[in-house]
Amino acid sequence: MPRRVGVVTVGRSDYGHLRPLLEAIRARGLDLLLYAAASHLSPRFGETVREIEADGWPIAERVPVPLEVDTPEAIARATGAGVGAFAAAFARSRPDLLVLLGDRFEMLSAALAALPATIPLVHLHGGEVTEGAFDDQIRHALTKLAHLHCAATERSAQRIRQMGEEPWRVHCCGAPGLDRLRGSARLSRDELARRLALPLRRPTLLVTFHPVTLEHEDTAWHVAELVGALAVTEGDLVLTYPNADTAHGQIIAGLSRLAETRPGTALVRALGDDVYCSLLREADAMVGNSSSGIIEAPTFELPVVNLGSRQRGRERAANVVDVGQAREEIRAGIARALDPGFRRALAGLVNPYGDGAAAPRIARVLEEVELGRRLLEKRFVDAP
User: Where residue 184 falls among pLDDT bands split at 50, 70, 90?
Assistant: First the structure.
């Protein structure tokens, strides 16, 4: 009987990264159990479970996590509710291994539910640093909960080993989300313009801004400064919804007002992976604080204006222009990113997150690791 590999996806933020891995798992003949959870099931965030269905992936379990309220208390309660919902799902369909990506609180819910069920955890994108968000602590907590680690960079792998993980558990595989960017067909600029109902005049900016969870009290100011800078920027703007983090409603409200009052602006709940990846290729710059600007944009030599502290500490390529949260700094960063000389200087840029062949490496780890007590019984490795 083939090994049963569970994969958790909690929203558009991870599904694009996981899709190449789903294909690699299927290619190796493993039995896939896909758990679609949280914002995938929410109409507020575009009900992106339909994208998974359209791609033809059978869903083993739909795991609801309440996301309607965005206060700190509500996020804590949602984490607890997620533990219960994932526990019920794993009791109905138990995998031999469970794959979790990144640093979302919904992923922490899945890990905590799997722990007493002795389901071995495989963590992707561990060892990275995002100092401006409590996601940083969640990512490191998932590292200590996990039994296997597929890091995106060697520096991240070294951090995982530094956290006391046994070296045999740590694999440097690259970022699987880059696999879908390599040589894939993309939508033309005309087709993108049709789908977005925008002319996509130059410059075209892709804007993805999420709450800075360690500074959630300042979210209203953050979004006001971002909107103030974008309102006087020439060209067309494609705005995406934020993640379902603390105070995300304030960002949605601010971006909605901008879309209603500024010509050439579209606010989209869920772009879909084909549109999003095509925009990475066609946009003139990206603005915001998303990990996509750090991990995926270098593949397209796309200039990125990275705002504030959310991604502070993360490895980055030369395409990233780091600025503060004030509108004057944002405007200056956009001007630099749109300078033709800056874009020309990015020719031949090497993406530090890998070569676009990570998913087969991760799938091989999933297939070949020996299940049993050695995998489940973790030993702390003291530093020499």
Answer: low
Reported as a single tens digit per residue, the pLDDT across 279-290 is 999 999 999 999
Give the C-alpha distances (Å, rounded to integers) separating 10 from 20, 151, 372.
16, 20, 28
Residues spanned by CATH 3.40.50.2000 within the chain? 4-181+356-376, 189-345
Judge whether residue 270 has pLDDT over 90. Answer: no
Rg of the chain over all Cα atoms, to the nearest angstrom = 20
At 93, list the tokens. 């369909």
Q: If you average pLDDT over residues 230-255, what whole number do you get?
A: 95
Position 185 pLDDT exceeds 70: no
User: Rounded to whole angstroms, how far apart are CA atoms 327 and 346?
Assistant: 25
CATH 3.40.50.2000 at 4-181+356-376, yes or no: yes
CA angle 52-21-350, nearest 5°?
Answer: 115
- Cα atoms found within 13 Å of the Cα of residue 221, Cβ hemisphere only: 9
Confidence of residue 235 (pLDDT cuts 50, 70, 90): very high
CATH superfamily, domain at 189-345: Glycogen Phosphorylase B; (3.40.50.2000)
Helix (H, G, I), strand (E, B) or coil at 6: strand
pLDDT at position 183 is 61
User: Whole-angstrom distance between the N-terminal and C-terminal Cα of the chain?
Assistant: 42
Identify which of 203, 366, 383, 173 has the alpha carbon closest to the alpha carbon of residue 282. 203
